[in-house]
Specification:
elongated; mainly alpha; 0% strand; single chain; 2 helices
Amino acid sequence: MYKTKNKKGQALGAAVGTIVGVGLLLLIGILLFGRVDSTIDMSAVANENITDSRGIVSNTVVDGFELAAIGIIVLVAAVLIGIVFRAFR
């Protein structure tokens, strides 16, 4: 791995790596959830409580993925604010 004496560059590289890693994990999670959710056959279930519970769980997972995407945006904003503050020192 390339080593630099610039600690700010190392911190920025780590932040970018974290953002990319979390983004990839989020995309993989969304893909897996979508495939699993679409393969569940609920046509034979007559109980409405089970069908409603599945919908609640599905909506909660989707909300979690949306929150994770907002977390990535916040992380990018924090990195950009750090870069701007260091530029004016």
